[in-house]
């Protein structure tokens, strides 16, 4: 796995040619530029009917990728304010800004998330929103360590250890360990939230 500087990681991902991996609050992410989500499907040998998540540093970076009424948007913002950053993925109606490659079999929806992890958000601040999923072959358990990810995905970009330390110092945070528990995934039905996958967060007011 190439260990690179933050600048080289950002350039590599923004170019659309490279995958990256970084820790989050749940499990380590495998990520690409949204326009090159196909790289993730190929690397994971993932079925196209399993959509990816659009992850960003702040929820404000994600609103342009979803579309709904003013009333719906108010509910979404209230939920985001309560639970994000955190281990919650909101599946919402997709705007025309979302590349169809993120959800090839149902491009009308998109899952969005903001991780509760300072290092991940610092990277996402530089790269912009990324297509993400867990770092593992499809059907296998999520990999938990950079050593495991390096062995399975040797071409994926990760930060040099010294860059990680510097970034943690810049964000005034201590190293954070992923919980190992995937995010809760809820889908907007038009009338409320439907739980598609129960994970680290228990969402109230679901239908």
Automatic annotation (TrEMBL):
Protein name: L-threonylcarbamoyladenylate synthase
Family designation: Belongs to the SUA5 family.
Primary residence: cytoplasm
InterPro entries according to UniProt: DHBP_synth_RibB-like_a/b_dom, Sua5-like_dom, TC-AMP_synthase_SUA5
Domain YrdC-like positions: 3-201
Protein's cellular compartments: Cytoplasm
A GO BP entry: tRNA processing
């Amino acid at each position: 796995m190439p260990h690179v500087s933050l600048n080289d990681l950002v350039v590599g991902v923004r170019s659309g040619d490279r995958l990256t991996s970084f820790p989050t609050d749940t499990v380590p992410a495998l990520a690409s530029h949204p326009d090159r989500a196909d790289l993730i499907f190929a690397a994971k040998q993932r079925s196209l009917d399993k959509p990816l998540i659009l992850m960003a540093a702040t929820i404000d970076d994600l609103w342009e990728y979803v579309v709904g009424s003013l009333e719906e948007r108010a509910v979404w913002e209230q939920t985001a304010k309560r639970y994000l950053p955190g281990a919650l993925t909101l599946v919402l109606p997709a705007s025309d800004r979302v590349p169809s490659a993120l959800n090839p079999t149902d491009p009308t929806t998109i899952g969005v998330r903001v991780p509760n992890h300072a290092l991940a958000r610092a990277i996402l601040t530089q790269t912009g929103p990324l297509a993400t999923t867990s770092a593992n072959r499809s059907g296998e358990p999520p990999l938990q360590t950079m050593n495991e990810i390096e062995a399975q995905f040797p071409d994926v970009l990760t930060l040099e250890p010294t860059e990680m330390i510097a970034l943690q110092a810049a964000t005034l945070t201590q190293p954070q360990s992923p919980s190992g528990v995937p995010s809760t995934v809820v889908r907007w039905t038009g009338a409320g939230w439907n739980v598609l996958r129960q994970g680290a967060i228990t969402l109230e007011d679901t239908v």
